[in-house]
Input
Amino acid sequence: MAPSDRMELMQETYVRNSIFGIVDSLVSTVGLLSGLGASGASAKVLVATGVIYAFVEAFSMAVGSFLSERATEEYVAQAAVKQSTPLVGGVIMFVSFVIASFVPIVPYLFFVEPLSLIISVTASLALLLIVGGVIASISKIHVLKHALSTALLGGAAIIIGVVIGRIIPGG
Output
């Protein structure tokens, strides 16, 4: 593989894994915390669950990224490949997932319900709007449309979490 092709592959890996890690983290973490909050879980339980979830799911996503990146490269090359690009992809996935997870978690450390839920959801949706806009800007597509669709899809996870949380009491 030519050096320029290798550089392009690395850039694609960085973008794909950082965006995937951030968006998946925000959507799943805020959905989980909203559902637990709706079920009556305490702020202490929400924070503990959120932090544990952030690290466990970040590792899971990193492993999935590593294995899928490696499989893709091996498929394209039709041979075993060096582990550097898949490993970097996994690390990027882990770091972006953990960092983004704290956006919906932190409000539960400083505010009481229902304000903590409102801030958690608002901050997460705002970051999803920003990420969606950045993706669109990089891809040279309609920024507002893409930003809104990213936030709306994330909002669906919140709705699912709250509905399930109302059905299953967790007090």
User: Anything to note?
Assistant: Residues 51 and 82 are 33 Å apart (CA to CA). The chain has a mean pLDDT of 90. The radius of gyration is 18 Å. The chain is about 85% helix and 0% strand.
